[in-house]
Amino acid sequence: GGDKTFLSVRPSAVVPKGGNVTLRCYYRGGLYNFTNFTLYKDDRSHVPILHGRIFQESFLMGPVTPAHAGTYRCQGSYPHSPTEWSALSDPLAIRVTGVHKKPSLRALPGPLVKSGETVILQCSSDTVFEHFFLHSEVTFEEPLHLVGELHGGGSQANYSIGPMPSDPSGSYRCYGSVTHSPYVLSTWH
Asked: Could you provide one GO biological process annotation from this protein's UniProt record (predicted)?
């Protein structure tokens, strides 16, 4: 049918090494979950627990290792017709943190910002990270992807926010990753 399948993850798609996440396969309409579903990992890297498995309702994945990082899709079977399977969901990226040393994050010119001012968030690291992810506890659904630039033996990325709303408070986290394993991240700052 035209129903859109999607894969959800709780509590977050950004998961610390050793942590757990719960995966569910849904109709986009949210009317009900698929009773049975199967997961596919895009890079086909071997996560033995997934191979040919059919899950019911939800799947608790963990303790998570760097091998679990990557993009997943799910396919559900319809309750009224268990042999009929849905379309594949869009990919969901699971990022594993705590693998590399954490970057530093600072606000320029400073963390105290008045309404109407612009602030620059700067992620930097003495490790060369090709990518940084900026995660807002307030607004962004997906972590914001920033490209790291080489800087004195390490790397950094700047993100300008502003002009700030009347209540600009909120916490931000920054992660770094390297190109050959983009879903394996540093500890968050």
From this structure: immune response-regulating signaling pathway
Closest CA to 92 of 25, 139, 145: 25
Cα distance between residue 130 and residue 146, in whole Å: 9
Among 68-72, 75-79, 177-181, 185-189, which stretch is predicted with the lowest mean pLDDT? 185-189
Task: Retrieve residue 103's tokens.
Answer: 């970057």
Query: Quick one: 110 exposed, middle or buried, by C-beta within 10 A (0-12, 13-18, 19+)?
Result: exposed
Residue 22 token pair = 């719960």
At position 149, the amino acid (one-letter code) is E
pLDDT tens-digit profile of 78-133?
Answer: 877 878 888 899 999 999 999 888 899 998 988 787 778 888 999 999 989 999 98
Q: Are 24 and 33 in contact (CB under 8 A)?
A: yes
**Whole-angstrom Cα distance, residue 117 to residue 115?**
6
Encoded amino acid at 121, one letter: L
Domains of the chain, first to last: 6-96 (2.60.40.10), 101-186 (2.60.40.10)
Which CA distances in Å does 19 have to 43, 102, 121?
A: 21, 17, 28
Gyration radius of the chain over CA positions? 19
Residue 66 gets which letter from DSSP?
A: G
Give pLDDT, residue 7: 93
Beta carbons within 10 angstroms of residue 22's beta carbon: 14
